[in-house]
Amino acid sequence: MVNLLLVSLRYGETAPAVAAAEYRDICEATGLSQEQTTHLVIDSTDVVIPDLSNFDGVIVGGSSLNITNQNWNSWQLHIHRQLEILTASEIPVFLICFGASWLAHHVGGIVGHTHAETSGQTVVRLTSDASEDVLARHLPQEFTSLTGHTEAVEDLAASDSSEVTILADGPTCPVQLIRVGNSTWASQFHAEMDAVAMKKRMDFFYDYGYFSPEDYLDIVNSLPSIDTKWSNELLAIFVRYCATRAATS
User: Where is the Glutamine amidotransferase domain (predicted)?
Assistant: First the structure.
């Protein structure tokens, strides 16, 4: 039986509710059960990544943190250290949204506000390198997903190009899915979300700048028509990859 660590990077009074919703979203998208998962909420500098030898893979949810913040507080610095532990290991890791910004910054890329996307639909298009990737090669050439972010990866040219592969881009965000090395992936889009999940997340972060409050109803009403099948399937493919890898190692 596959055993995954699901990590939530949440802080403050809403942390328990947001983390619980995120856990539901990931399990819903992947088909994982409680018996197959351990949910770790890093809501303070006292919470650290456990012994990874007990797990077959790790999924890290999004965060209200930003790489572009002028000052990183002690909690954000702690989060960065924990993500470094994860990505330095050989265990498969999939990071969502903030994780893409952090990973790009970590390998020497540039993160900025040029390609921010408001909450709602985004289009994801595979690059030619996706055909050789163990996850992305199972996806259609183009699909839709849900998103919402105030910063994004702007340039990976300064990174170690031998380690970084852009697997998907899009018309409104040029870096949608990347792989670093052979075991770490990060999506800018929310691979775990469906319409219900997006509305709930919008309610949690109503005043965070992910959308204009006057557009709230229009966005929410549009959500059920957005196809998240292949976006969610990407996470399910990751889980199956972890299970196969564990069974053959």
Answer: 43-201
Report the alpha-carbon distance of residue 138 to residue 12 in Å, rounded: 38
Tell me whether residue 188 is exposed, middle or buried, using C-beta atoms within 10 angstroms of its C-beta: 0 to 12, 13 to 18, 19 or more: buried
What pLDDT, in 10s, does the model give residues 72-113? 999 999 999 999 999 999 999 999 999 999 999 999 999 999
For residue 145, give the nearest of 182, 179, 170, 114 by alpha carbon. 170
CA nearest 180: which of 108, 77, 97, 78?
Answer: 108
pLDDT tens per residue, range 105-162: 999 999 999 999 999 999 999 999 999 999 999 999 999 999 999 999 998 876 666 6
Q: In 3D, which of 127, 207, 139 has the Cα closest to residue 167?
A: 127
Q: Look up residue 122 and give its two tokens.
A: 């985004």
Q: Which of 183-187, 193-197, 206-210 has the lowest mean pLDDT?
A: 206-210
| AA letter at 108 | G
Which residue, among 246, 147, 240, has the nearest Cα to 192 in the 3D structure?
147
N-to-C CA span, the chain: 14
- Residue 78 has which token pair? 């702690």
- Give Cα 202 distance to the centre of its chain: 16
What single-letter amino acid sits at 35?
E
Distances (CA, A) of 190 to 18, 49, 55: 14, 22, 23
